[in-house]
């Protein structure tokens, strides 16, 4: 894997040089992990003008402190002594002493105070904005990354499938969410990819609903959204079910509408499709049915080392899909006071010759009565 991380740093180095900076300081943890294989707490990565100049700078670790990932064993490291200060400031000082005249930094990750400290520690060093250069590199995944996402999706499918075989009536949203997160770990996840959402009755269909002590009742819609973190890579799945022997007519109608929107979004995932076009494919079905005001604000987003990455599949998003980009497609409708439906899959954009979009989350989307 060392060569993989080295190649990623080369691509970043080329971008930095083209923008006129001699070095780059990467501080956002997910970006450090992407380029270095791991992200020890507080660590930063100094990407120099040539491969041998790359350096991971980290504070002194407490004994037994867990490491986020597995560091590239060929990458040089420097551990600051106890009380050694901010690793980012130390990196800026090193860049200045090495003769660099410009340092690109992730301004979107730095506080104003920290940015000021960098300038004070390395006077004469021109600080430029690295912007989201690393995040842009992360959008297209290699097959090893996709393999991790595939396993994460399998774990989430297993956890959800087991929950559906249990008795649900009378249990609280909070209890079900905790059980799902335990099952994720039992099946090999490093943890939940994000706080698990379980929404019942009038709460169902809400995006990002935080579980409450409301108990599952007969006739409820039950919406579940969960994801697994496997080796740092995070997937997402969301399903909606009905509690009881048979759904009501309005529940069937709403479910079929959201299912049609989700299917349209999935089928539009082709290389070259505009981000906003994917959103439009799903949204126009909901809008035509009179749900423009009750639909979710975006149809999907990228996943990877973070659960909400670029691209954003929203009405105002700019850009086009590439192959090997994993995204969610998650339209939903929530009717205040009644509840709603959300259907959410993680897929990988593939060329038509390769079979089209690869569906990672395979739990049935049939409207089940549990």
Automatic annotation (TrEMBL):
Domain Peptidase M24 intervals: 148-350
Pfam families: Creatinase_N, Peptidase_M24
InterPro entries in alphabetical order: Creatin/AminoP/Spt16_N (IPR029149), Creatinase/aminopeptidase-like (IPR036005), Creatinase_N (IPR000587), Pept_M24 (IPR000994), Peptidase_M24B (IPR050659)
Domain Creatinase N-terminal residues, every copy: 8-140
Domain of life: Bacteria
Name of the molecule in the record: Peptidase
């Amino acid at each position: 894997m060392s060569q993989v991380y080295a190649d990623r740093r080369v691509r970043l180095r080329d971008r930095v040089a083209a923008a006129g900076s001699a070095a780059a300081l990467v501080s956002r943890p997910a970006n450090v992990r992407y380029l270095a294989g791991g992200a020890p707490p507080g660590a930063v990565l100094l990407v120099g003008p040539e491969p041998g100049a790359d350096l991971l700078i980290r504070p002194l670790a407490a004994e037994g402190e867990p490491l986020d990932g597995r560091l590239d064993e060929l990458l040089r490291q420097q551990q600051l002594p106890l009380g050694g200060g901010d690793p980012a400031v130390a990196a800026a000082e090193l860049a200045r002493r090495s003769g660099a005249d410009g340092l690109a930094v992730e301004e979107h990750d730095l506080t104003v105070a920290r940015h000021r400290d960098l300038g004070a520690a390395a006077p004469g060093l021109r600080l430029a904005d690295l912007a989201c250069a690393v995040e842009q590199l992360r959008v297209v995944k290699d097959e090893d990354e996709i393999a991790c996402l595939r396993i994460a999706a399998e774990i989430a499918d297993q956890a959800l499938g087991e929950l559906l075989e249990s008795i649900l009536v009378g249990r609280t949203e909070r209890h079900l969410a905790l059980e799902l997160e335990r099952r994720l770990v039992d099946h090999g996840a490093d943890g939940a990819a994000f706080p698990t959402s379980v929404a019942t009755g009038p709460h169902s269909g809400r995006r990002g609903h935080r579980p409450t002590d409301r108990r599952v009742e007969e006739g409820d819609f039950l919406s579940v959204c969960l994801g697994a973190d496997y080796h740092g890579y995070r997937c997402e799945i969301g399903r909606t079910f009905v509690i009881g022997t048979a759904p009501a007519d309005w529940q069937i109608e709403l479910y079929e509408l959201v299912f049609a929107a989700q299917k349209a979004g999935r089928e539009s995932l082709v290389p070259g499709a505009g981000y906003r076009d994917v959103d439009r494919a799903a949204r126009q079905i909901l809008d035509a049915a009179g749900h423009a005001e009750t639909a979710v604000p975006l149809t999907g987003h990228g996943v990877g080392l973070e659960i909400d990455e670029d691209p954003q599949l929203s009405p105002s998003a700019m850009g086009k899909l590439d192959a090997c980009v994993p995204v969610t497609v998650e339209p939903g409708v929530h009717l205040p006071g009644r509840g709603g439906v959300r259907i959410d899959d993680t897929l990988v954009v593939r060329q038509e010759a390769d079979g089209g979009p690869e569906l990672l989350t395979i739990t049935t989307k049939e409207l089940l009565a549990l």
